[in-house]
């Protein structure tokens, strides 16, 4: 199962909205096949693992280890449970149940009814952690939300305007290694979100540059459409969703997905509902302070990844405040990275 979890991580950033599953097939304490979920629309982990077995007759005596319950319904691909039954695999060890309404025990029941010896909950805690994005999406009807920001040693997220250059660009607090890590994170999540002021002040591209991987869907909050067409978010290089209260926004900018919401009501809740409908299972929120704090205040977040740089501002925009539980502390060269969980 540890090997299955290791394999499953290869699907990070490419399988969504499907879960990134890992599967290992064992015969006589020897691995004879393994696989992980292909990019969205491709074969699932169990299919890839079975296909990798050279001698298919070995399957009738083998054990399949899989991080998540095999699916039992037709989607982009046929049910994995049926394929396992077809090859007469007698033993199936499952890390955790699939919370999806179309599966949720149905895959296990189908395997058992076919005579398979099914073990459930093996290394379950590790499997739940691995599948946290998919499970949160299914159970809470919203994306898995990761907050990220960098703050100075004296607790500021940005300097006062006089410290900035006239042209909008980032004012770095974290070091180059931390910034590269952020690009890795971007490649792992399905979407990235920032507010209006972050775009106006920094003109970010919000893509993956210092790492190899797929750029996330850009999600922007721009109530009154203050951001003009010359900003990077309008360059059409990446799918972009803009939340606004301007109802005819699509007439001003083509090829942008404008979503109209009511800014007099809870904005984070409305964003989460819309992203859930769009099958976006995870999002990285990078700023600014007001946007980050709004999700914290609405208790709509799962992780907060906070860098502390070695510089001080003395004055500026105060960093958000969260009440999460410290999960891990890492040193990224000169920076300190604290990871909090919203338990």
From TrEMBL:
Keywords, comma-separated and alphabetical: Hydrolase, Metal-binding, Multifunctional enzyme, NADP, Oxidoreductase, Riboflavin biosynthesis, Zinc
Binding positions for Zn(2+) per the UniProt entry: 44, 71, 80
Catalytic activity entry: 5-amino-6-(5-phospho-D-ribitylamino)uracil + NADP(+) = 5-amino-6-(5-phospho-D-ribosylamino)uracil + NADPH + H(+); 2,5-diamino-6-hydroxy-4-(5-phosphoribosylamino)-pyrimidine + H2O + H(+) = 5-amino-6-(5-phospho-D-ribosylamino)uracil + NH4(+)
GO-annotated biological processes: riboflavin biosynthetic process
Cofactor remark from the record: Binds 1 zinc ion.
Residues annotated as binding NADP(+): 150, 172, 198, 202, 288-294
UniProt binding sites for substrate: 186, 206, 209, 286
Cofactor(s) this protein requires: Zn(2+)
Domain CMP/dCMP-type deaminase intervals: 1-119
Sample GO molecular function, one term: diaminohydroxyphosphoribosylaminopyrimidine deaminase activity
The enzyme's E.C. designation: 3.5.4.26, 1.1.1.193
Active site (UniProt): 46
Pfam families hit by this protein: dCMP_cyt_deam_1 (PF00383), RibD_C (PF01872)
Pathway connected to this protein: Cofactor biosynthesis; riboflavin biosynthesis; 5-amino-6-(D-ribitylamino)uracil from GTP: step 3/4; Cofactor biosynthesis; riboflavin biosynthesis; 5-amino-6-(D-ribitylamino)uracil from GTP: step 2/4
Protein family per UniProt: In the C-terminal section; belongs to the HTP reductase family. In the N-terminal section; belongs to the cytidine and deoxycytidylate deaminase family.
PANTHER family named in the record: 2,5-DIAMINO-6-RIBOSYLAMINO-4(3H)-PYRIMIDINONE 5'-PHOSPHATE REDUCTASE, DIHYDROFOLATE REDUCTASE FAMILY PROTEIN (AFU_ORTHOLOGUE AFUA_8G06820)
Role according to the record: Converts 2,5-diamino-6-(ribosylamino)-4(3h)-pyrimidinone 5'-phosphate into 5-amino-6-(ribosylamino)-2,4(1h,3h)-pyrimidinedione 5'-phosphate.
Protein name: Riboflavin biosynthesis protein RibD
Organism: Maribacter luteus
Name of the gene encoding the protein in the UniProt record: ribD
